[in-house]
Design a protein that fits this description.
heterodimer, A: 438 residues, mainly alpha, MetI-like fold, three-stranded antiparallel β-sheet, 19 helices, 66% helix, 5% strand, disordered N terminus, B: 285 residues, alpha/beta, Rossmann fold, four-stranded antiparallel β-sheet, 12 helices, globular, binds adenosine-5'-diphosphate, binds magnesium ion
Chain lengths: 438, 285
Amino acid sequence: MTDIAREGHRGRPAAQHADLSQARLRRRYAAERRFKLYGVLAICLAIGVLGILLFSVVSKGYTAFVKTEIGLDVYFDPEEIDPEGTRDPAVLADANYDRVIRDAFERTFPEVSERRERRALSDLVSSGAWLVLRDRVLEDPSVIGTTERVWFRASDDVDMLMKGYIPRDVPETARRVSDAQIAWIDALDEAGQVGTRFNLDFFTAGDSREPELAGIWGAVVGTFLTMVVTLVLSFPLAVATAVYLEEFAPKNRWTDLIEVNINNLAAVPSIVFGLLGLAVFLGWFGLPRSAPLVGGMVLALMNLPIIIIAGRASLKAVPPSIREAALAVGASRLQVVTHHVLPLAMPGILTGTIIGMAHALGETAPLLMIGMVAFIVDIPSGFTDAATVLPVQIFLWADSPERAFVEKTSAAIIVLLGFLVIMNALAVILRRRFERRW
Amino acid sequence: MMVMDRSNRATAPTAPAPGAQAEATAEATAGVYGPLKISAQGVDVFYGDKQALKQVDLDIHENQVTALIGPSGCGKSTFLRCLNRMNDVIESARVRGTILLDGQNIYDRDLDVVTLRARVGMVFQKPNPFPKSIYDNVAYGPRIHGIGSGKAELDEIVATSLERAGLLKEVKDRLHEPGTGLSGGQQQRLCIARAIAVNPDVILMDEPCSALDPIATARVEELIDELRENYTIVIVTHSMQQAARVSQRTAFFHLGELVEVGDTEQIFTSPRDERTQGYITGRFG
Ligand SMILES: Nc1ncnc2c1ncn2[C@@H]1O[C@H](COP(=O)(O)OP(=O)(O)O)[C@@H](O)[C@H]1O
Ligand SMILES: [Mg+2]
């Protein structure tokens, strides 16, 4: 380089100069192209990995959105359901419907006589199948004494078999479905008595020990309640803090200290917040365990620094000339903030908030500490009810031994990812909507 | 009401007779100008430990344009910002001394700075319209000060302000379009309209044309000359030609000191201080 420069100085012809700069230009363009290439490669890699992840989750999980059903011709035996003929709902609700189902199986497969075999036969349907019959009878007692085709939810093992997750060609002892059961299922299938249906229950049911009965609604409601608490607590507090620190507070050692600490808080591992919640909210305040209220409070603590930092950044990005303009026409400092600065900063603040909320939505560790990891069947109906949240539900299911929970886990992940995508899309839309380009 | 006051005074001579200029000093000619509007007495300004203004005494008279000139960093903007207490928002800034506006010290503890800024408007170097519509830009000041109740009155204020800023004709069909969509010169006139919408007595301008092209500059200079009739104007400029064109009085600042103040003609033709001489002949600055 220096040589070339010196040569240039010695008064070479102009052509030499031009040639020189050509070479340099070429090098510059080459460097630029290389840099672009690296960028494209990095993006491709990221998209590829994301694609693999999504594919793996979706391919494992999509089957959870359908369920296998077995149709049986059920004789609503008056002897069994309502021997005295009172039609009293209490009696109807109390009847032994399991036996009705067993009878229906026996009529379908009359050759099965051994006790153990019968048991295996009625295991084809879910242990919660009798509820369908009870509801049917309670809804319309006149079915008693008649025969009707009723569709029952298959047990998780049959469901897995039909979905192809249980291989048929391994030795009988190595799988959870016996040869006899496979034969029955095939027979039923041939007779058109096995079907699949959209698994609405997955979205409307709470958790269950039986994989085929387990749903995510309890976790969704728990998540919603928790997020409401988080948002209501963290957003106003964080925005007020950001506005005060950025627009009103004097810049001195104290505010520097606060700033440093807020930045540190954002980097604190979330489990520490969980421990704090355990010690303070549960220990001192005596708030209920496993409650969305406490979960929301813990996540709000975690969220605060994120929103404060995002808020301060977007407040800082508002040009000072706008503040001066407003001050110069006689606006008070509060008016400057509320009329001009805050509206201009709002898209950024909202984006930060939604990103923080998305973080909180996927957070598991701190919630484990405050007991939101419990097995909870009931759908929470308030902020202080025991509840769990989606990521914790995923954690719980991923930990369960049954094969059927694998697809539930993936399906729950799909739902969680769906929520995250919706939230991020919301962030983009909000930014577009409220951003003032002019 | 204030406007009527002003127009009465507008008949008073606003510039001294040409012959009297050579020997005129600021003190001696005070009577020839309009009444005293602002009187700065012994103003010191510090940014932290650094003194930016040293003992500045300057009188500003009604219905005339006072230009502040001087090399970059000599404290012109600092002085201007003292006049509507915009320095208050700079944390490190401390102001000492007295600045009387119509005889009242604006640094009095019980003076309301919001009211002061309604009386002393400001136009900045870079046009800074709010990212709102043209209408809302002008209406903002009246709204927060409760001037003009009702839409009709506000419309009227907006129209007259734009008219006075010489912008109405260009924007009257697009009042509800963004003010930031205007050209630089139009934006600056919009900022002037915004400043006069709250009916101030004084308008401070800090290098209002430095971001504008020559044609827009000429337009704003014309406007300043028209506004002089109703307002007291203090303008900072680094262009001596501009000072000569628009102002009646000129103050020359150097290194935080007010070196010389006098009729614009006199400053440019026969400056008494050699630093002024040096600056206007282009030897420094
Ligand atoms: N906000 C500030 N903080 C610290 N020093 C400042 C600030 N504003 C101006 N100064 C200093 O005060 C002096 C005068 O500045 P200024 O009034 O802006 O000069 P001018 O407008 O004449 O160019 C300069 O030395 C400048 O560096
Ligand atoms: Mg300046």
